[in-house]
Amino acid sequence: MEPIKKSYKIFVIILLIVIISSGFLLPLLLIKGTNIENIDIQLKFEGDNAYIHVEEQILINQTHFRIPGTQGREQCAQYFITKFQQITTNFSYILHNFTVHSIECQNVLFKLNENFSNIVILGTHYDSRARATKDPIITNRTKPVPGANDGASGCAVLIELARALYERRINLSCQIWFLFFDAEDQGYDYAAGIEGWDWCEGSRSFVNNINNFYNSSKEYFDCMLLLDMVGSENLQFINEQHSTSSLLEELFEIGRQLGYTTQFPTDPYSATITDDHVAFINIGIPSADLIIKFWDNPEWPYHHTTQDDLSHISNMSLEITGRTVEQFVYNNYLGIPSNDYQGNYPWKQDINVLDTELLIFLIIFFAIIGVSSLVILLIRRIYVKKKDNNSRIKIKNTF
C-alpha cells in the first residue's frame, strides 16, 4: 500500500498549493484601505465644466482630428493655452517640441506655484488615435478615433483641476505641473495607429529632456499622477501594476472616503499597463495611473473604435476623477492649521501583485493538476485493491 500513501502525500501538497493560490494570493489583488482620513474641505471641481472641455476638444475633430503632426493637434495645443490663460494670463507654460520618425510633435506643460521646490505632476495625453484598429466594422478600421474618453477626458479633468486649484494656490505648499502628452496612442494593438510608432512616445521624449524643464539643484519631484480614460460611463479604476502601490492605494482610499466605492473598489482588477507614467517610474518618481479596464470590457467596449465619442462620456465620472485628485492635493499640500492629514508620503513603498488574468490562470492550472492527481490516485487505489482481491482468490483456489 506504499504507492497509495505516496499519492496521498502528492495530492495533499497539490491541494495546499490550490488553497494558497485561492486563499492567499487573491487577497493580494485588493487595494486595502489605510488609516488615512480626508481633510474636511469644500471641493471646487465641477464635472459639468469638465464635460464642456471634452465637448470642445471633440469639436476640433470637425475640421481636423487631434493626431500627431496634423493641424488638429496644433489646434488642440492652442486650445489648452487659451483655457489656461482664461484662468490667468500669467499662467506659465512651456512647449516641448520633438519628432517621431520626422513627424513634428509637441508636449504642453503648464506650471502653478513655481516658487515651491517640490513638484507634483498631473499628466494626461491629448492625441487621438489615427486609426480605429479595434472597430467591430472592418471598413472603419482606417478611420480616426474621436478620442472622447481616450485622450480628451483626461485633458478636460486637468483643465478643470487647474481652475479649482488656482483658487487655493496661495495655501498650497507645492508646485503643480499640468502636463499634456502628445504621441501616446499610436502604437500597435491589432495594427498600428501610425506605422512604426510605439506607445508613449511623448512621455519618453519628455523624460529624456526633463532637465530642461526644472532646476535639478533646487527642485525635486514628489509624485506623478496620470489620468487616462477617466470620463467613461460605468467608471471603475483598476489596480495598475506599474504604479507605485502606496501612491495608488492612497488615491483609492481617498476616492472611497468621498463615497466613490464603485469607482474605487476594494477588490479591483489588477493589470500591468504600458502608459505615460512608466517613463517617470523609470527615473525614480513615485507615479500612479488612474485607468479603467479598457479591453474585453462590456461596460465600455469602445476602446480604439469610432464609437469613442461624446455619447459615452459621463459628467459624473469626470467629477469623481477630478474631485479625488483635488482632495489628494489638499490632503497632502493644503497649508492650513487644521490639516493634520497623514497619508503614505513619500510613497516609496511599492508592492507588486499578480495580474488578475495570470492569477486566475494559475488557480485553474493548479486546480486541474489537483483534480487530475485525485483521479489518478483513485484509479491506482482501485487497481491495487483489484490486484489484492485477485491475489486472495488465487491463493484460495490453490488450497
What does this protein look like?
With 399 residues, this protein is an alpha/beta fold. The chain folds into two domains: 2-27 and 355-398; 31-333, Aminopeptidase, CATH 3.40.630. It is 41% helix and 13% strand. A six-stranded mixed beta sheet has the order 1-2-4-3-5-8, with helices on both faces. Helix 1 (2-25) packs antiparallel against helix 9 (356-398), helix 4 packs across helix 8 and helix 6 (245-257) crosses helix 8. The protein starts with a helix and ends with a helix. 43% of the residues are buried. The model is unreliable at 22-29 (pLDDT under 50).
Write a compact overview of the structure shown.
Helix content is 41%, strand content 13%. It has 399 residues and is of the alpha/beta class. Strands 1-2-4-3-5-8 form a six-stranded mixed β-sheet, with helices on both faces.
Give a quick set of tags describing it.
Aminopeptidase, 399 residues, alpha/beta, 8 strands, 2 domains, 9 helices, two-stranded parallel ribbon, 6-stranded mixed sheet
Task: Indicate the topology.
Layout: H1 2-25, H2 47-60, H3 71-87, E1 92-100, E2 103-112, E3 118-125, H4 148-167, E4 175-181, H5 201-208, E5 220-228, E6 239-240, H6 245-257, E7 270-271, H7 278-281, E8 287-291, H8 315-333, H9 356-398
Parallel strand pairs: 3-4, 3-5, 5-8, 6-7
Antiparallel strand pairs: 1-2, 2-4
Helix pairs in contact: 1-9, 2-4, 2-8, 3-4, 4-8, 6-8
